[in-house]
Each structure stands twice: as structure tokens, then as C-alpha cells.
């Protein structure tokens, strides 16, 4: 009977193309709006490094103002001071750890190549060697720099795939040099495509922004006194003069991450930073009560409110819109099924049970839902393209409709339409055959 | 075969009670061709609907092939209706979007026949009513008489014991009506019991028995003869 019901659904849909088109439009619009916002929300909140998400920790040290917390409810700063970053790098018992910041400098090529490429401003992530293995950063050529090169403030760089294409035409450029901030930098590695979403390792400069053009040692940034290209927060004035004065200050501007592969390592690390804070208190720093934190990746996304309230409200609004569309669909389907009362009466007379009539019309609702879902999928894609063109700075992956979401859209459409069709379907199965057959 | 004893049926709308059938008793035997006549509103169609299990009743007993139908649930009533009864309506009630083949197929689908069985039955039924060559046509491409023949083919395809016809010639001109009546008599002659509601006295006279109904009761059996072969 399944194929018979499909056949009847198609015949019935061909009979009233206008009504079907309206239903498909209503469902499609509802699904399109809902899935566009759901997709963005879903991708915003997805753990970008699920296999290591519980081993990686964003470190928070509460070195903030004694009179008020960095942010409510009593949260420590989301970055650390230079003093603390260096102390932790030197002594904290992590399997791997990195301090990171950003700097923007001019890139240019030397020699013949330099004539072809105009100098341009590029932002580099400045980090420690551990950054690459910690975050499973994929390499196309070469590898990250060494710990020794961190210590030496070496002029080495890892290029993003795009930057390597721009500078060296995408070839294996390991060993080649270019100028960054007027310093000759040597390429040690080229990344494969890598753009985790959200950009969990640095949420301070846009959780959904594209990654930086290149990576250089943090120590190189500091030793060259290169400025930072990111957020800086201070709770008290900078005492000293110049760059050195700034880095000795209580201003926070460095993201700090540690890889702690088991519970014991985590406990050790937590004890270490608490003891460290106690030591610092003796030196007159860390005036607030002890409040240091280790946040796993999912915790960090939550604490930093990566999925904004606005995005969530938009999602709920679009869910309401879907509901309104479905209410319309109920009305349209009721009109359609009432128009079929004569046929239903006849089918009942020749032996169809209420269940058969119910099944037949449920199949019709499913087919309408499927069409609505496919149309909704198209609208979702269109919606995501629209958002992408409006917010070109955002990571494109945020606007990608993966198979899981596409299937969800179609399933949601079918489920919603079947639910919307339930009342009309029940009404259809209750048609009294005797009344209908006489009134024909 | 069909036995009603003191069957009553009342419709209640807005506190107005209309007694459609009152202590209605009738027995139809296998092979009968019964014509049910009576003025409008006398309860003919209600009798036919109850006979065809399209409506329930308030009191009394109705046995169809010895089975008490008042105790059946919707599924069993539907199955019984499908297996035992074929309907022919005044307005044909064909589904315009389906061709003749698919229209005749409708009751067979609910019987659970396989594809080959259905095809054979459809072709036989359409052949019997002289429309085998037009099974891919749609109802709107046919005359009224031909449409009613298709409806008869649909009713016959499942080999029912009963054919219930509600003014089967009511929408046809006299020539077409004669053709349909001849077909019904032929079907009756081959063993199918027919109960036909009609206003037409001439057609009623062609039945083996005429039941005259008035005010929801069998008033009299006004004529009895063997159906004209």
C-alpha cells in the first residue's frame, strides 16, 4: 500500500498545484528561516577540536582590580599579563603550553619577486612552538619552529596556505625568506587549510574571524618590541615608560593555553597556578581572593558566550516564524483535504478503513513536507550566502550547510508538516461516507 | 443473506429528532433483485446506507451473511464492506484524476490482491461492462452511461455478494438508463444479489421483488416476480 499511497499523494498534489505551491512556500520559508539561524548557532557552538577539547585549557589568573571583578559574575580576566605569561612558560608543569598574541606588520618580498608584490599589512599570530602540536595544526610543508628558536627569539615563520600562495605561488617555500616588520624571516612551515570554528584559541579578536596570515614566535614579537594587534585591558595605570614599561604592567593582553592530558596533570597545574598566585600576593600583586581557572574548550566557549544572546533570540524568533508558517499550512491542508471529502467518502464506501484514509493523507502530508523541506534547504543556502556576503570578515565555514544540517532541515520539514497535517488528516479520516456520496 | 429485524435509525440535530427508519424488517435472499421504492424522505437511502455498512443504526438487529454487524469495529466493517458489498451511486462517484483502470482498482487495493490478480479482475470487470478498450481513458472523456458502467465495473471487480444501487439511472437519459438496467439484470442473472433504490416504477417492475417504504417502514411488498432475464 505504501507505493499506492505515494501514487495517490502525487495525483492529489497535481490536482491542486496552487494549494500545494502555497504549502510548499509556507513550509519552505519557515524551514529556511529556522535552519539559517540554527545552522549559524550550531556552528557557533560546535566544539572545533572535539578529540582534544577536554585536554586543552584556557588559563585564567585573577590578577585584577581588588575593588571589582574583571567581569560578572566574579570572572577572572580572559587574558594574562606578560609577567604571568613568562612565569608560567618558564615554570608551570604543562605537557604543552603557549602564550599568544598578535602583531600587524608590513610583509614584503626581496629581490626580483619584491617588484611583483606590493608590500602589504598582515597580522601574525605570535605564539610558542607548542602551539602547533597542541592545537593539531596541519602542515602542508615543513613544520613549526623549535623551542630553542623560541628562546632565541628567532626570525622564523609559519605561513598560512593563503599567504604562501600569495607570496610564493603555493610552492614549497620552506627555507625561503621574506620581510616582516622590516626583518628577514625564514619560512619553516606552511600550513594546510586550517580555520577552526569558532576560533577557540583566541576569542578576544572575533570568535568567527579568519585565522591570521602567518605565525611567528611570541618572543620575537617582544624582543623586537612589536606592537600588539588585539585587545588589551588594564585595571590600573601603566607605571613604567615605553614598551618595557607596558609589558611590566598589570595590563592583560596575552591568551594562555595549556595541554593537560589527564586529571592528575590538571590538578598539578591548578595547584601550581594557585601557589603561584599566593607567591605573587606576597609581592603585592593578585589583590583579589584566589580565583584561578582552567577552562576546557567547551567550557571556554560557554564562559566567553561565543553563541551570543542575539543569535539565540534570533533563533527563537525564527522558530516562532516556522510555527506561524505551519499554522498556515494546517489551514491550507485542511482546505485541501475538505475538498477531497467526496473521494474519501467513496474510498470508505468501497472498503477503506479510517486507518487507510489516515495513512493515505499522512503520506500526502509527508510528500508536501519533503518538497517544502527541499525548498527550505534552498532558502537556507540562500540565507547563508546572504549572511556571508553581509559579513565578509567572518569565517566562511560558519555559513556552510553540512550534510547533517541539510538532512536535519528536510527531516524537520517533514516532521513539522506531518504534525501540521495531523489535524486535517484526522478530520479526513472522519468523513462520513454516506453524507458525501449522496451530496456529490 | 441480508436480514434486518426491527431496525430503527433516528437523526438528531439541534434537538429535532427525525426518525428515518422505524422497526424496519426485511430479508433479502441470495440471488434476489430487490427494488426499493417510496417517496422522498421515506428512508430508502438510509436503509441502503445501513445495508451497506455506511451508517450505523440505533436499535434492532442486522445480520449480513449471518454476521451481526452491530458489534464490528471500523476495520472489520470496512473489510466486510469491501468483500461483500459493491456500491453503485446515482452520481457515479468516479475519481476524475484516475483513469478507468485505476478507478476500478480502488476497492481491489483495499482487499490486498497482488498486481496480477488486480489486473485480471479489472480487465474482466471492464470487459463485462463493455469498456475494456478504454481503460486508459479518464471519466470526463466518457458519457454518463459509460461512467455508470465504469462504476458498476468497480462494484463488480471484487466479486461482491451484494450490489447496492442508489438510483443508478437517476442521472441518465432513458436510452442510457435502459442499457444500465439491462446490465444490472445480467449481473443479477449471473448470481449477484442486487438491492436497488429507485423512483422509476418501470425499472422497479423489472426487479424480482418491490419493497415500498413509507415513513421509515416497509409498507408493503407490492409486486413480486422473477427478474426478467
TrEMBL record, chain A:
Keywords: Cell membrane, Membrane, Transmembrane, Transmembrane helix. Residues 21-225 form the MacB-like periplasmic core domain. It is found in: Cell membrane. Residues 317-431 form the ABC3 transporter permease C-terminal domain. The chain crosses the membrane at residues 313-338, 362-383, 403-423. GO terms for molecular function: transmembrane transporter activity. GO terms for cellular component: plasma membrane. Coiled coil: none annotated. Its main location: membrane. PANTHER family: ABC-TYPE MACROLIDE FAMILY EXPORT SYSTEM PERMEASE COMPONENT 2, MEMBRANE COMPONENT OF TRANSPORTER-RELATED. This is Putative ABC transport system permease protein. It comes from Pseudoalteromonas denitrificans DSM 6059.
Automatic annotation (TrEMBL), chain B:
Keywords: ATP-binding, Nucleotide-binding, Transport. InterPro entries: AAA+_ATPase, ABC_transporter-like_ATP-bd, ABC_transporter-like_CS, ABC_transpr_LolD-like, MacB-like_ATP-bd, P-loop_NTPase. The keyword Chaperone does not apply. One of its GO terms (cellular component) is transmembrane transporter complex. GO terms for molecular function: ATP binding; ATP hydrolysis activity; transmembrane transporter activity. The keyword Zinc does not apply. Residues 2-229 form the ABC transporter domain. PROSITE patterns: ABC_TRANSPORTER_1, ABC_TRANSPORTER_2. Belongs to the ABC transporter superfamily. Macrolide exporter (TC 3.A.1.122) family. This is Putative ABC transport system ATP-binding protein. It comes from Pseudoalteromonas denitrificans DSM 6059. The lineage of its organism: Bacteria, Pseudomonadati, Pseudomonadota, Gammaproteobacteria, Alteromonadales.
Amino acid at each position: 500500500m505504501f507505493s499506492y499511497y505515494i501514487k495517490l499523494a502525487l495525483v492529489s498534489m497535481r490536482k491542486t498545484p496552487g494549494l500545494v505551491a502555497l504549502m510548499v512556500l509556507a513550509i519552505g520559508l519557515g524551514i529556511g528561516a529556522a535552519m539559517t539561524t540554527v545552522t549559524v548557532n550550531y556552528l557557533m557552538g560546535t566544539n572545533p577540536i572535539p578529540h582534544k577539547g577536554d585536554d586543552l585549557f584556557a588559563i585564567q589568573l585573577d590578577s585584577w582590580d581588588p575593588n571589582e571583578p574583571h567581569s560578572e559574575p566574579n570572572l577572572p580576566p580572559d587574558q594574562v599579563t606578560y609577567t604571568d605569561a613568562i612565569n608560567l612558560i618558564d615554570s608551570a608543569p604543562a605537557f604543552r603550553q603557549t602564550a599568544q598574541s598578535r602583531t600587524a606588520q608590513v610583509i614584503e618580498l626581496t629581490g626580483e619577486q619584491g617588484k611583483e608584490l606590493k608590500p602589504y599589512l598582515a597580522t601574525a599570530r605570535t605564539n610558542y612552538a607548542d602551539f602547533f602540536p597542541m592545537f593539531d595544526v596541519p602542515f602542508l610543508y615543513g613544520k613549526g619552529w623549535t623551542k630553542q628558536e623560541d628562546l632565541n627569539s628567532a626570525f622564523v615563520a609559519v605561513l598560512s596556505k593563503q599567504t604562501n600562495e600569495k607570496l610564493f605561488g603555493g610552492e614549497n617555500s620552506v627555507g625561503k625568506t621574506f620581510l616582516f616588520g622590516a626583518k628577514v624571516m625564514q619560512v619553516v612551515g606552511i600550513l594546510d587549510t586550517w580555520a577552526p570554528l569558532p576560533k577557540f584559541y583566541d576569542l578576544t579578536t572575533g570568535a568567527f574571524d579568519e585565522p591570521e596570515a602567518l605565525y611567528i614566535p611570541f618572543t620575537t614579537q617582544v624582543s623586537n618590541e612589536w606592537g600588539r594587534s588585539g585587545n588589551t585591558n588594564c585595571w590600573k595605570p601603566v607605571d613604567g615608560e615605553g614598551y618595557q614599561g607596558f609589558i611590566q604592567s598589570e595590563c592583560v593582553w596575552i591568551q594562555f593555553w595549556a595541554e593537560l592530558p589527564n586529571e592528575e596533570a590538571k590538578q598539578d597545574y591548578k595547584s601550581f597556578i594557585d601557589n603561584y598566585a599566593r607567591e605573587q600576593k606576597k609581592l603585592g600583586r593578585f589583590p583579589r581572593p584566589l580565583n584561578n581557572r582552567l577552562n576546557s574548550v567547551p567550557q571556554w566557549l560557554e564562559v566567553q558566550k561565543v553563541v551570543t544572546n542575539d543569535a539565540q533570540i534570533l533563533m527563537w524568533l525564527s522558530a516562532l516564524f516556522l510555527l506561524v508558517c505551519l499554522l498556515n499550512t494546517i489551514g491550507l491542508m485542511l482546505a485541501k483535504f475538505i475538498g477531497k471529502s467526496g473521494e474519501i467518502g467513496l474510498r470508505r464506501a468501497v472498503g477503506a478503513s479510517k486507518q487507510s484514509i489516515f495513512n493515505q493523507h499522512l503520506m500526502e502530508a509527508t510528500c508536501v513536507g519533503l518538497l517544502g523541506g527541499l525548498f527550505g534547504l534552498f532558502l537556507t543556502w540562500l540565507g547563508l550566502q546572504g549572511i556571508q556576503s553581509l559579513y565578509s570578515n567572518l569565517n566562511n565555514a560558519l555559513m556552510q550547510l553540512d550534510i547533517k544540517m541539510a538532512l536535519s532541515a528536510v527531516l524537520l520539514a517533514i516532521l513539522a508538516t506531518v504534525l501540521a497535517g495531523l489535524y486535517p488528516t484526522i478530520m479526513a479520516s472522519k468523513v462520513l461516507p454516506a453524507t458525501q456520496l449522496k451530496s456529490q | 443473506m441480508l436480514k434486518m429485524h426491527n431496525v430503527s435509525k433516528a437523526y438528531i440535530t439541534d434537538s429535532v429528532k427525525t426518525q428515518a427508519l422505524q422497526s424496519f424488517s426485511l430479508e433479502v435472499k441470495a440471488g434476489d433483485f430487490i427494488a426499493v421504492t417510496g417517496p422522498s424522505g421515506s428512508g430508502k437511502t438510509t436503509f441502503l446506507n445501513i445495508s451497506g455498512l455506511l451508517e450505523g443504526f440505533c436499535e434492532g438487529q442486522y445480520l449480513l451473511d449471518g454476521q451481526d454487524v452491530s458489534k464490528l469495529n471500523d476495520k472489520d466493517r470496512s473489510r466486510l464492506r469491501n468483500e461483500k458489498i459493491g456500491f453503485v451511486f446515482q452520481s457515479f462517484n468516479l475519481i476524475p484524476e484516475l483513469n478507468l483502470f485505476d478507478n476500478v482498482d480502488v476497492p481491489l487495493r483495499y482487499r490486498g490482491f497482488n498486481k496480477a490478480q488486480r489486473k485480471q479482475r479489472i480487465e474482466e470487470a471492464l470487459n463485462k461492462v463493455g469498456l475494456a478498450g478504454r481503460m486508459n481513458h479518464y471519466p470526463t472523456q466518457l458519457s454518463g452511461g459509460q461512467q455508470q458502467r465504469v462504476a458498476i465495473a468497480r462494484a463488480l471487480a471484487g466479486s461482491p455478494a451484494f450490489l447496492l444501487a442508489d438510483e443508478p439511472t437517476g442521472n441518465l437519459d432513458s436510452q442510457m438508463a435502459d442499457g444500465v438496467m439491462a446490465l444490472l439484470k445480467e449481473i443479477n442473472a449471473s448470481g449477484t444479489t442486487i438491492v436497488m433504490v429507485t423512483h422509476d416504477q418501470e425499472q422497479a417492475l423489472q426487479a424480482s421483488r418491490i419493497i415500498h417504504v413509507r415513513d421509515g417502514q416497509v409498507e408493503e411488498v407490492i409486486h413480486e416476480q422473477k427478474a426478467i432475464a
